[in-house]
Fold:
Amino acid sequence: MHFVFVVPPVSATGHETYYFWVLQKWMHETRDKKTTIIMPEAYVTALGDNTRWELSEQSINFNQFLPSSSISQTTDVILYPHSSSSSADRPPTTEFVELIGQDIPALKQFYVEALREIKEKASEPVGVVTWLNNASLRSAAYSEDCPLVFNEFGPFRKPYYRPTAYWDRHGVNGETEVEKRWQHEKAEFTAWRNSAYPDGGSTEDLRLLLADPLSAQIIRGSEPQAKIGLALQVETDSNALAYGNGWNNLSLINHARRSADAETALLRLHPGGAAIYPGKIDLRPSPLEFLASVDEVWTVNSSLGIEAIFWGKSARIFGDSPIKPIDILQTAERDLFLEWFALCYLIPFDLLFDFDYYSWRLTSPPLSEIARCHSDAYRSEPKHQWGTVPFPPSADSRKLSVDFPGPQRAPVQFAELKLETLEQKQYIAKLEKDFQGEPSILEERKSLLVEQNKLLTERDALMIERDRLLNERSRMLMEQRILASEKTKAIAKYDLATRELGTIKSSIPFRLLKRLRILR
Structure:
């Protein structure tokens, strides 16, 4: 099968090359394959820009691709036509939502003609792969009898989990085939699960399979501090824009304010968000620490809602989401659905854009084989040894949250803080200037320090000399003691000899000998 990758022609932010990393991922995974890419012309220029953030080490290790600066010779490229009508005055979000949900005749016709050209050239079945939903592409692919696969980042990502991706034949995030597949595959999955886990424990084994051990420690290592946690999203999030059911960050916050637990509700801002909302804002570096700190997660359709359900927490998802069918299920079936969703609906990120896998999946293999394939992939080492994506540092207990006053008071407080900071800087500058205005004091102090060091050096030398003299005195005293001891011994010997001589002289034999000597 010849695969075609269709890069979305517009983005919610208006950036012309918003999906550059996805293109890089496709080129990496298909570098030895013959394929076709349909994309905007701006991506051709972007390939020569080696300063893009997508080419950073962090992006490469997170998204798992080796960068390419040119398109392979085995890859054909079809560029979108230049739009004849000006869209400069239209919000990018409007065009984006239209792309996702509306069948645009001109765009559909472009896709139809492109697919016909590709089919004629390839002389084999053509499969279409795209990122995000695209109503015109869906209509064109169906009309040309080309199997279509929608992909997107899955809810489980590095470093907290083995990374996942969405793989859906009808759409991602919204307009998915989840409910249809679940009803069709529930019985088969139940049989497989009962066979694989006759003694139960499948849900816990799933957590061990997907989650890093440290993630489980974080979730179970702290007690909830708030009843409700609001997982907010990027304002240009495609899920919220197209499938929010009218909900957005602000309406979600206002709804939470009307609840009984409004005072303790904790807001989790998206790191890529463009706005700060009033309320108690969570400052924990890790989203898992946020999940651990709340009893229930509310969200429009953030993936944090799916993560909460994965860890057995309650979650209210107000918009559309592929996990939404779990809301109406009984407890026992909820666990079954969660396991099917994580193991069979999502795919391992290592299989994203893998042609062998896609060709196999398009043959509609038995569910048990899909479950086994995914389980084996999660248990295996990645196809390439990517650099580690580190966990963020643990939360500082002094900086767990902050009360943000809201759009009326916040600018005033910010201005007051800026003014106070400026005044403090000016005061510090004045002190430094005054201090620098007295060089003689500094020179005198420097001279005194030099003199002090000189005196200390001389003192140290005198102390060394004193110690030498004391050692010499000790040696001489020791010699005097030795001489005195020897003198005492000599006197004692002399006294002994004198006494012995006196004894000899007073003895009778000595006197007789003395007389005999005289007589002679």
